[in-house]
Amino acid sequence: MKITLKLFATLGDLLPQGASANAVEVEVRDGCTPNEIIDRYQVPRELAHLLLLNGVFVDKSNRDKPIVHAGDTVAVWPPVAGG
Amino acid sequence: MAWANKVLRVNLSDGTVTDEPLNMDWARQYLGQRGLASKYLVEEIDPKCDPLGPENKLIMTTGPLTGTMASTGGRYSVVCKSPLTGAIACSNSGGYIGAELKNAGWDMVIFEGKSPRPVYLYIENDHAELLDAAAIWGKSAWETDKILHRTHQDPQLRIACVGRSAEAGCFYAGVINDLHRAAGRSGVGTVMAAKNLKALACRGTRGVGNIKDPLRFLQATEEGKRVLRENAVTGQGLPQYGTQVLMNVINEAGAMPTRNMRETQFEGAHSISGEAMHEPRKSDGRPNLTANAACFACTIACGRISTVDKEHYTIQNKPQYWGNSGGLEYEAAWALGSDTGVDDLDALTYANFVCNEDGFDPISFGATVAAAMELYDLGLITQAQTDGIEFKFGSAEALTQAAELVAKGEGFGKDLGLGSKRLCEKYGRPELSMTVKGQEFPAYDPRGIQGMGLAYATANRGACHLRGYTVASEILGIPEKTDPLSTEGKPELVKAFQDATAAFDSSGLCLFTSFAWTLDDVAPQLDAACEGEWSAEKLLEVGERVWNLERQFNLTAGLTSKDDTLPKRLLEEGANVGPAQGKVNELGKMLPHYYEVRGWDSDGVPTSETRQRLGLA
Fold first, then answer.
1. B453-482 residues touching A, CB cutoff 8 A
2. Which residue from B551, B540, B465, B472 is spatially nearest to B507, judged by alpha carbons?
């Protein structure tokens, strides 16, 4: 299935070729987990501080669950803040 | 003891300057800066006074750690009654002016009355005098800075001043210091100009003495710096991407106020984000961002230094804008960009330059332009009012022309200088103003971040993110993640953020340290520097006291619990997209409990028990 992966801030360097505006469409297996995706693109888990699935935060205890579905957007940031 | 123990009182009406000792009884209760200056203001003016009349006072104030080696210890604040809101105003800025004032030996300067002619205050250590401002009145903040440096032949002179927008009566003019930093919110610059006061020019060479325990202070500040350095946000995220890293975060979370808060996600967010500021431009291969920058004593360095593409329409024939200048922070980028629907990074950067050059708040300006664009969209404003400008959402030309008009107070710029509330009232649609207590919203839609709705509604200076930044918890997970779509626990969360923030703002330190520090990190630094004993618990109590003092000022000024609310749009129209789709802000569920948590009655008035507990009775 296809999903959109977005890596921001310092994680942007880890995006595969073809990415634009910090986003890329990728093919993943059905029923995959957030951790499978970030591992595949070599995002250190400790730097995946903020992980949003379709805009909703996924805490670390739920990142090994098969919650990613076709058409979803997974967006990841290291620890960031502003104001 | 870190305080200089000296206040400069400037009577602008009769042209006198006198010094007096700092009220140390108040300093022990209110610490400094925001808290202590608010105490002086409450004691010295009638909260019902005309904010633009001579009876209002304007206080430029430092904190006990301002000018010291504590990381970020360069902050100062401008405190007065706000013309924008009618509430108490306290606007905080970094740069170097605060440290310079402290190094000249002053804790604060109290300006009272109104000068019969334009003047500026010149300070060189103990020496202070009012000087004629004829040569700088009518000049921009940048020109003023240049002229004063030339006049006094001192490259190290630090200057805080107002630009032409303040002189023209723009309700949201700020006080610009060091060219690119601003006490930006609530119209404190408007008050300064109304007093015929153009600038403070200051040189201080004495250093900050009287540190209670110098060795312990060295150790405590070094430990504080280590924590900032090793924290991923303050050690890496903020220096590299600045506050602008939030643009994509908030947009993905569906809490990006867009087109006057009609929508909650902006399709152009990436083009104006912190990431985009790093990308090379097509025309010259250079990125928008040149470098980061730090204020006095800061070890974070979140400031942005940027350029506009020389080929961009805004500056093609204006070489004065071709160099580096203060770049976009998240709040400015949101207000100038997403809220107006403009995704042209160069246009936003140029508009931000103009805001700095002539000293007006880019948040209030952008939000007012957005309101005007909605009025234009509805046919309530036409090109007859806008000087022929097509004032459509998404028009970069409208945005940048509007900035130029507000800067000089010309044409439609006079209407835009009213701020969103007065503008929407003038054109018969007050409900289209996205404000609380007359102050425009910052960059977080409270339908998608419920706690921020309560924080906005109850902020003592009107809608503001810097009075209780629950975004840190609700979105960013600092110090702990909470659900942004839930109201549960939010009254307690908002109160905790509000009180802690008031303590940070009274210390002389930057609030951004709170992404890594708690009050447990601040207390040892203050305790080593200041007379008395300063624990985290005591600082939290100071924060709560300051909050209630400000509340009492506002209540006496005539504000009531009816002002603790949000625009109808946010309470009745569901978010159009994103995780909060269909949701409104549920302020009604949170506000009564917030009053209880605060120790206020059902009308939002601090009870006598609360006042007595905090020493406010």
1. 465-466, 469, 471-472, 475-478, 481
2. B540
